[in-house]
Specification:
Number of strands: 19
Radius of gyration: 22 Å
CATH architecture of the largest domain: 3-Layer(aba) Sandwich
Helix content: 25-40%
Strand order of the largest sheet: 1-2-6-5-3-4-7
Number of helices: 14
Length: about 450
């Protein structure tokens, strides 16, 4: 059975429109509780959220579902996704839930589920949850005397801040550094600036006034221009832009030059390889990582392993093959020695550690490799559009012939939005641009016509 609700990063969509409704959230909670309740002890779920207006609605619905199934709830309020994963393990809970649509606008929201080990639930478990949701669950409700209880954790921010700070090399400080931290009016708006301040930095905090509707709006990791401008205005040493749930980051150096996830992973991998901390003989990333990154690692006799888009697939491969650095070009950076999921604050501290230890500016440190020209464009599509149509496959073959052996083409459906993502990269920038535009034009044309699917 294929999954209908769950995508590459939980359930996501427009708030108050299926599947992000109170009714479906209630059903998700009941089915998840039914599947993951363990033993005779009081089963517990940790629930966190970002700062979206719709978070109140989904939080209440999820609470009702879990409580009705006899699970106790610990509420942590607005906290980063990696904090929810960490607290799930720390509190020995049976489940963690993050209410967030990550980098999306406030109109969207989502539900991410973590197991007792702090890792996102597998595709198989999510499929089982969907199957349970198709059946009546009223006969599985807890007896009146066994309904769950809900409490709020009092020291959740302090716990997470100390956890993040403990990933920074012992004895090292950030005194003398001026850091711009853009929290995207999201989940890290309180904890993000405090982490760097408590390690000694002078912090210029922006994106720290959430109002329920301004999360990711012209700020944060997906709109880093504000961070760049603020770095230049204040003469800061580095800029750190998080997304709405702080599981990804984008940096800029003191000159305002962007440092993406590939460069961040390359920098940390180089540092850890020299110190003997790197495991697995390389880095796990996705099909979106730049060809220049792969060539750079090869020059160090390290490997880049590419997974499908989605940090869960990166994490699964890391765990199965003993890698401790993985992530995505978009800024998800998973450092397995410290976290079970992407953590923008921990990744930023690893970069700052290299800068502090080298005593060189970020512009000298953070441009690790020369990326090849790469272009990504998004095209909206109708539900009926198929990448497997004969015409689409023929267009892809033609594009690949044009690119030849010195480049790559990737066309895929987004797992979180109704978009076709068209990416090409290669040494010839003009050719890359032309191929991407041709494919985008072709997608738009085909989307207006009925598709013929290739038969297996």
């Amino acid at each position: 059975m294929s999954r209908k609700l769950f995508g590459t990063d939980g359930i996501r969509g427009k708030a108050n429109i299926a599947p992000i409704t109170a009714e479906i959230a209630l059903q998700v909670a009941m089915a998840t509780a039914l599947l993951l309740r363990r033993g005779e002890h009081r089963n517990r779920v940790v629930i966190g959220k970002d700062t979206r207006l719709s978070g109140y609605m989904l939080e209440s619905a999820l609470m009702s579902g879990f409580l009705s199934m006899g699970m106790d709830i610990t509420l942590v309020g607005p906290m980063p996704t990696p904090a929810v994963a960490m607290l799930t393990r720390s509190l020995r809970a049976d489940l963690g839930v993050m209410i967030s649509a990550s980098h999306n606008a406030y109109q969207d929201n989502g539900i991410k589920l973590f197991g007792a080990d702090g890792y996102k639930l597998s595709d198989d478990v999510e499929t089982q949850i969907e199957q349970l949701m198709q059946r009546p669950m009223t006969d599985k409700l807890a007896p009146s005397a066994e309904l769950g209880r809900a409490t709020r954790l009092e020291d959740e921010q302090g716990r997470y801040i100390e956890y993040v700070k403990n990933s920074f090399p012992r004895g090292l400080r950030l005194d003398g550094l001026k850091i711009v931290v853009d929290c995207a009016h999201g989940a890290a708006y309180k904890v993000g600036p405090r982490v760097f301040y408590e390690l000694g930095a002078e912090v210029v905090a922006i994106g720290v006034q959430p109002d329920g509707t301004n999360i990711n709006k012209e700020c944060g990791a997906t709109a880093p221009a504000l961070m760049q401008e603020t770095v230049l205005k204040h003469g800061a040493d580095i800029g750190i832009a998080l997304d709405g749930d702080a599981d990804r980051l984008i940096l800029c150096d003191e000159k305002g030059q962007i440092v993406d996830g590939d460069q961040i992973m390359a920098l940390i991998a180089t540092s850890w390889a020299r110190s003997g901390q790197l495991k697995g003989g390389g880095v796990v990333s996705t099909v979106m990582s730049n060809l220049g990154f792969e060539r750079y690692l090869k020059g160090l006799k390290l490997e880049l392993r590419r997974m499908p888009v989605g940090d869960r697939y990166v994490v699964d491969h890391m765990r199965a093959n003993n890698f401790n650095i993985g992530g995505e070009q978009s800024g998800h950076v998973i450092l397995g020695d410290y976290s079970t999921t992407g953590d923008g604050l921990i990744a930023a501290l690893q970069v700052l550690a290299v800068i502090r230890q080298s005593d060189r500016p970020a512009s000298d440190i953070c441009k690790v490799f020369q990326p090849v020209p790469q272009l990504l464009k998004n095209v909206r599509h109708q539900p009926s559009f198929s990448l497997d149509s004969e015409a689409m496959q023929a267009a892809l073959r033609q594009a690949e012939l044009k690119m030849g052996a010195q480049g790559r083409i990737l066309v895929r459906k987004s797992g979180t939005e109704p978009l076709i993502r068209v990416m090409a990269e290669g040494d010839d920038a003009m050719l890359v641009k032309a191929v991407v535009q041709e494919l985008c034009d072709f997608v738009e044309l085909q989307d207006k016509e009925p598709a013929k699917t290739i038969r297996a």
